[in-house]
Amino acid sequence: NQGALWVSAADGRIKGWDWAAHDDTGFAGLMTRNGWIDVDSDLNGQESKITVKIVTASEERNEFFFPGFIDTHIHAPQYPNAGLFGSSTLLDWLETYTFPVESGFGTQPDNEKGHQLATKATETPLPAQTIYNQVISRTLAHGTTCASYFATIHIPATNALASLCKKHGQRAFIGRVCMDNPDFCPKYYRDTSAEDSLSATKATIAHINAIDPTGSLINPILTPRFAPSCTRPSLEALGKLAASYSPPLHIQTHIAENTNEITLVNDLFPEAGSYTTVYDKYDLLTPRTILAHAVHLSAEEKALIAKRDAKISHCPASNSALGSGIAPVRSFLDLGITVGLGTDVSGGYSPSILEAARQACLASRLLGHTGTFEKGFECGHSHSHGKDGLQKEMEDEAARVKLSVPESLYLATRGGAAVVDMADDIGGFDLGMLWDVQLIQLGGVKGLQESPLDGDYGDGLVDLVRSGPVGNVDLFGTETWAEKVQKWVWGGDDRNVKAVWVAGRLVHTRG
Ligand code: GUN
Ligand code: FE
């Protein structure tokens, strides 16, 4: 009762498997076996053929492979601030928490050329090495096989992030943050001019191309932080730079996260008409653009995003933590917009995409209780219905906008893959896809043992902490695979991530 899976060591892609019914759950792309999984080789790319034996044997181990998570929006330098935001909202949070921590990734003061032009490895500040190592290790431990990172404005630290992702084996998009607008960015943390900003960005692209010339693991991504942080010449230059590459460069930014931020954009760009048209005007709204948040877009803006095929990174943990609002994900999906999930560390308090999936489900369940939901609904529908009919329609719509567990997992994997324009390569177990995978292990009642404390506390006690095989999710032997996955999403964490591979290379094991 064995199956085998072949992953080519040459390119880390799935070449074949020889068992049937690999998806017995109804979850697209999920591969589970009602048995235990024996990793036959070290999967480190040294073998010409890698075999993973799937043994459906007597023992119930409650393990399954799952596609690696894709974090479509995370700020690596903000990791020290994860969980620190008090009761702030976006604009005061940036000023109080974010710009101070990011500015610390600059070079030593003895570099007379200033941060933009420092390129020697020796100029890389120590905090960057330490913090970037930590955030990469931590996200890998949570099953994130691919991340789209915002770095800081600094060249050496941004280059260090790219090099460290390569060393750890995490697939990554690396963006030097562009911040040249003196009307918004603080004096202590900004690019000195649009020209310097552009040349600094080019320097980081050159480094990334040097360490990974084919872009097999690490790729650059143009990163105008958000409209308020950039001057018009800077936005224009980035749009042109993206288009000068074939295929065009990836782009990431923030959009319509917070109502005060939108007011600020309207003040700074009164000619544009909307937040979305600011980006569109400078050719930054492309099929390879990741727009984070998108909480407060107008119908016209959503239509333009759909028309341009730009992508949305949904960051529900961050949107709740900073009180930004609830992004109407169903309305994006209705329009055919591609959506993935982002942790948005440290607007988001957790580096876990499983947490983001959970929060996406929760936020969608609250959406029908908000004033904006009700208002939009009345405008759209009240003309043709009486009061009771309207109430019923509203309830139906509130139910329809809820995201299911399978949908949230889709966003975390295949959705994210499409957001980073890698839908053919990652996010599932299709033949030919890269083996970017996490091995999930859940608990089981069979692991429970009589507690040594029985004598003290009475018969029948079990010591969950000592004997529970793994994590927070207890199974009772009655669950279907679909139910096991639901329990994982609602109660799981990094203790359930037993091993992680990227392109067939083992990049994390739980010690
Ligand atoms: N808008 C501009 N910068 C940021 C940032 O660092 N995080 C979030 N969440 N929103 C932003
Ligand atoms: Fe962000």
Automatic annotation (TrEMBL):
<keyword id="KW-0479">Metal-binding</keyword>
<dbReference type="GO" id="GO:0046098">
    <property type="term" value="P:guanine metabolic process"/>
</dbReference>
<dbReference type="InterPro" id="IPR006680">
    <property type="entry name" value="Amidohydro-rel"/>
</dbReference>
<feature type="domain" description="Amidohydrolase-related">
    <location>
        <begin position="66"/>
        <end position="507"/>
    </location>
</feature>
<dbReference type="GO" id="GO:0008270">
    <property type="term" value="F:zinc ion binding"/>
</dbReference>
<dbReference type="Pfam" id="PF01979">
    <property type="entry name" value="Amidohydro_1"/>
</dbReference>
<protein>
    <recommendedName>
        <fullName>Amidohydrolase-related domain-containing protein</fullName>
    </recommendedName>
</protein>
<keyword id="KW-0862">Zinc</keyword>
<dbReference type="GO" id="GO:0005829">
    <property type="term" value="C:cytosol"/>
</dbReference>
<dbReference type="InterPro" id="IPR051607">
    <property type="entry name" value="Metallo-dep_hydrolases"/>
</dbReference>
<dbReference type="GO" id="GO:0008892">
    <property type="term" value="F:guanine deaminase activity"/>
</dbReference>
<dbReference type="InterPro" id="IPR011059">
    <property type="entry name" value="Metal-dep_hydrolase_composite"/>
</dbReference>
<dbReference type="InterPro" id="IPR032466">
    <property type="entry name" value="Metal_Hydrolase"/>
</dbReference>
<keyword id="KW-0378">Hydrolase</keyword>
